[in-house]
Amino acid sequence: MSQFECLPEPLRQATSWQQEVTVEHIADVYAQAILAAADGEGLAQTVLEEFDSLVEDLLDRCPLWEEVLSSPRIPPEEKIAMLERIFHARASRVFLESLKTLARRGRLDLLRPIQKRLRHLWQQRQHQIQVQVYSAVPLEPAELEQIRLALRKKLAAEPILVPQVDPQLIGGLVFRIGDVIYDASIAHQLDWLRHRILKQMEQKVSSPQEPPSSAKSF
Q: 190: alpha, beta or left, given left = phi > 0 and alpha = psi -120 to 50?
């Protein structure tokens, strides 16, 4: 059993998101450094495309490669030699040196988060912003388009929607932009209403009204 399975669903969800935020922060540090190095060579878009290809064409299609690269049992020197053989004549120097640096620091398990942060940083340059949209049921294309148009006005940027289905929401939507979560779900509204009612009841119990006096004043 996972250490989080015994937690209530909202708390378990918050804990999971907190873990994601921590990973994203570390990945962002590396992504910023990689993009800066790529900018110095005039290869920002090239390196971004190389990381996209690494994830989509290698890790997604060959899960064993991901296990090998992220395994703590394989020494960094062996991983670096492996990366040299694979990418030396096929990729940019910035891309290969970035992978070798990650290997030395034991961070090849962060290839996917780093690729996501690189894509995020690139989208920011293009005045785009990624928005994860959580809903209880899959959204129709027309509904996603309405959300996109509404968010474009609010964000003053072009939103790139990433739909996610979460039956726990009951209904409504939850938006996640970077580390910030905007909860507009029915479940959140019900939880807020429940807390408000409980608070009102506590106030009544702690401050009981005095019974009206039967004595007449003269």
A: alpha
| pLDDT digits (tens), the chain, 218 positions | 444 344 344 444 444 545 565 888 899 999 999 999 999 999 999 999 999 999 999 999 999 999 999 999 999 999 999 999 999 989 999 999 999 999 999 999 999 999 999 988 888 887 878 889 998 889 899 889 988 888 888 887 888 899 999 888 877 788 888 778 887 776 666 666 666 766 776 776 666 555 554 444 33
Residue 72 DSSP class: T
Ramachandran region of residue 60, left (φ > 0), alpha (ψ -120 to 50) or beta? alpha
**Nearest CA among 118, 115, 132, 53 for reference residue 86:** 53
Q: Exposed (0-12), middle (13-18) or buried (19+): which is 137, by Cβ within 10 Å? A: exposed
Task: Give every CB contact of residue 114 below 8 A, 6+ residues apart in sequence.
Answer: 27, 30, 31, 34, 51, 102
* Three-state secondary structure readout of 151-197: HHHHHCCEEEEEEEECHHHCCEEEEEECCEEEEEEHHHHHHHHHHHH
In this prediction the pTM is 0.57
3-state secondary structure of 131: strand
- Residue 178 CB partners (closer than 8 Å, separation 6+): 120
d(CA 32, CA 20): 18
Residue 163 bridge partners (DSSP) = 133
